[in-house]
């Protein structure tokens, strides 16, 4: 499939092809879980936990082990926000933009964060809709850890040690 | 003897520094025990010290306060809230499902039993399956996920279905903004949910169960997995539940960030390892659910009410509440609220009692402009409607819904037009894409609201918006597309000025709207 000539603008640079070691590791993960009922989501979660993201080259491996078509796997990967397809950045900010946090100023924090790290390759700012911390918003996670009352000032203070 | 202190391990408490406080207390020589949260979230981290009088609470503790706390220097100031069990905010509640949350260590099975746990399951195992379902039917318990469907009827359908395997699935994909009761129950008292699911399994002949839990709740995932391991080790789960010979296996499955998977059929597809697309009904999941087998799908709070129903009998539960809304509801106060948290109360409590008496108004101190009840698909209600009793039918009549009991408070800086636009935008973002009214209607909805707000052919676009809302309400496959018009229409009805619309003009449009555009029928299917 790699031989099909590209039409239109070139896509964003894809991660380098996965190596044989990764393919073997992904195969082992998938084989370990293949006996579960409905194993695809648990396998994809495990791949992201272990390797940071789902590589395009993981898809045929997972499809093979679980006896699914590649289209089935790609369809599932693309449907869910959690299954990222590019390597994660060094730091990740994920801010809640749902109603309860909006009522406490989440949009101001989100705008400040996207501005501050607009050009950063080290820090990724994402949005999330509800972390279940609705009485203490604006809520967000910093490298996965949950924080409350995230004003722009507090966000700055908590990320003081981050580069960029 | 070193003092015994309790520090909540609930994610909300952790988000304001509870772990650091626990570490500091342990370093200072205290015996630290971790409980769930009492639900008084504005006081977190709320540390409790065991005394002869009971557990005395200290609010908003920071690691630097630990020395003063242990020396007794915090006893006089405003930080000490007295004996926590006697705190007026808690004492005025009626905690049934939440009776142990914040009181015990979440995964301490012995403490769970001491505080009344497992009594319901033990009784259920002495009854016939038919009698267990009858108790649930008699209790009047209705689905707490939002639709309010009678649990007993659903269980009876599964019980009488013939199949080689049946499932119990707990919907813990609590994606609605302003709701966190599922999370706090799982983090604070997971055995209650496990017990409720084991009872559901015994009542319906199911042998396998799944809890579909959001990936946004890592603390809950950890606690529930640990609790399930402990339940297996003590024979509460496994090949013979409490020695009854009835087998029940339970597993946690983690969602992957798709809001729509809180819709039950979409959740089932996701559990099967597929895109979380909504299924057309019929067939209903009770007959053809997970992997095509008869399946009980209930919300966390529904299943967590079941142990009490079985322990004390259906009639005791049915004695609480009002009208056809029986028992208690776990309300959640969030958003711009001074005193946010968990309020479990009998149905029938008014919105005003919740927002003003418990909530204490806004956190910002500005006047309340509106509350949104029942999550992102619920209506915006102004203070003039605060005398509404919390009751499924009363809310439906008012063009609103109780939903999962979440109440989000907004102060007077809220722009209702922007919130209406956001409702459509969110629907566009999270629609599963299977049906056209939701997939396309939500995007068109954003555009139409933009035109109304910009004053472009306002009158014609108001008619168009109403037409679109009616199409989405009547034509969508599930409650997502079907109920997105509810926040939009209620925002327009109560705050037309935020759309740049004179009140008289908005009245003319909303008066034309068919009654069904505000009903909860879309979410009430079994």
Automatic annotation (TrEMBL), chain B:
Residues 516-526 have a biased composition (Polar residues). Belongs to the complex I 51 kDa subunit family. Residues 417-462 form the NADH-ubiquinone oxidoreductase 51kDa subunit iron-sulphur binding domain. It holds the Pfam family Complex1_51K. This is Formate dehydrogenase. Residues 506-526 are annotated as: Disordered. One of its GO terms (molecular function) is 4 iron, 4 sulfur cluster binding. SMART domains: NADH_4Fe-4S.
